[in-house]
What does this fold into?
Amino acid sequence: VDLQPLGPDEVTALVEQVLGGQCGAGVVHALGAASDGNPLLLRELIRHGITTGLLAETNGVWRLLDELSAPPGLTQLVESHLAGLVPSSRQAMEILACAERIDVDQLGRLVSDDDLEQLEASGLARTELVEGRMLVTLVHPLYGEAVRNALSPLRRRRIATALADVVEGAGFPSPGAVMRVVQWRLDANVDVDPDL
It folds into this structure.
């Protein structure tokens, strides 16, 4: 069964139904963004939030006490999807998870077209045209979190450095590119050019 993503009003209704009470706007927004409107994932995030104490009721209103994290079941689900990938496609998935959203030409400097096509065919990545630029993203942001959490610190450092080098080498072609390069350099614990 292919479920369509829920809209904001439907997310609010489902969250309040599952929690059995009123929710702060921050809770609904965070859960909606993290689930990308996927009703099954939304329910899992709510269960995980309650179990871990991230979601708590205060004075009759449900609030988010800390940043949402990927439920353990999601990590297992992502791992099962990745199991069928060849090693080079898995590495492409790791790079895309760290990039989150990147121009296809920039990503193409780090991974092969075949690997990108495999990620797309496997339902793990998608492309979208934004202001004339072809961007690649994971199909769901929580997939990225699950993959990033599984990376060793050295692997994350290598990927962050490579991403920063590629985007900086492309001349910061998009709004926010400078900030992304700075963040990747900080994540890699390498010097940041003060002129950026």
Remarks:
- The longest strand covers residues 125-130.
- Strands lie at 22-23, 55-58, 61-64, 101-103, 125-130, 133-138.
- The mean pLDDT is 88.
- The CA atoms of residues 128 and 134 lie 6 Å apart.
